[in-house]
Amino acid sequence: xSQHKTPDTLQKFMFDGAPVRGELVELSDTxxxxxxxxxYPPAVRTLLGEMMAAAALLSxxxxxxxxxxxxxxxxxxxxxxxxxxxxDLQMRATAKFDAEAVISEASLLxxxxxxxxxxxxxxxxxxxxxxxxxxxxxxxxxxxxxxxATVIEHYMLRSEQLDTRxxxxxxxxxxxxxxxxxxxxxxxxxxxxxxxxxxxDRSVMLGSTLRNAELLETDIETLMRRLFWEETIRVFDPQxxxxxxxxxxxxxxxxxxxxxxxxxxxxxxxxxxxxVDCEFCGQHYAFDKVDCAQLFVATxxxxxxxxxxx
Length: 310
Ligand SMILES: [Zn+2]
Description:
Blueprint: E1 9-15, E2 20-27, H1 29-35, H2 42-59, E3 66-73, E4 78-85, E5 90-97, H3 109-113, E6 120-127, E7 137-141, H4 148-160, E8 163-170, E9 175-182, H5 193-208, H6 212-217, H7 220-228, E10 233-235, E11 242-243, H8 249-259, H9 261-271, E12 274-277, E13 284-287, H10 289-304
């Protein structure tokens, strides 16, 4: 890997003197790692890549430090799309699709995941340091639009009462996105409401000049200059999203424990060992008979004396 490679970047900015904020994100290495060992049809790849950009943009926008998980359970040729992004912008993602289906490159969101109107899109917001009794917040997002950007814009307006516009694009190399958001107007002498609205309208108009091809081909620094060169903009320190999978041997072991000893033993009798590949990173985990026996012995010890610590 080249030393001078630009890391993946998320850039927040604010329009000076108006409650309009924006973010640009560029995922290249993160996005490539998601695609490793996978061969997604182009339409599925585009959708997953756009969800990645959207998840990073929304995550950086949260009022708390925590994770965002986007899940689409499709009823079309795409069965499942999952994107996770934590408070440090560490991300992973995966998609499952019908390998038999012919998926046209021009497929819209509806064709892919909501063919019979039974697709489900769930966004989970999970604060890292939960207050007592606090739970993850889960919202069902109506799949009422032809693109993931439109669907999320509707969701943000309904759930957060925030006017949000998103432009997303992804191909095999890069996933990029722009978010613009109108914050509640503070009013007052310095920021008359009419001026705030004018700034918002102008920013959206500038964003709307962005074509998909331009978003794919242009780095975010150039995009920022090209779109907003006439505006006075405050730019924050850039953040750097990266790929990270949270799978571990311990987690796979816990999953096997949940299957139960009987189930595991019968699978062992048939196959000799338990093999599990991580859906997100492809990491291979194998548990032979001894490993499996140890899993259940450890459980029994804990169950008979909960004070035992290892
Ligand atoms: Zn993994």
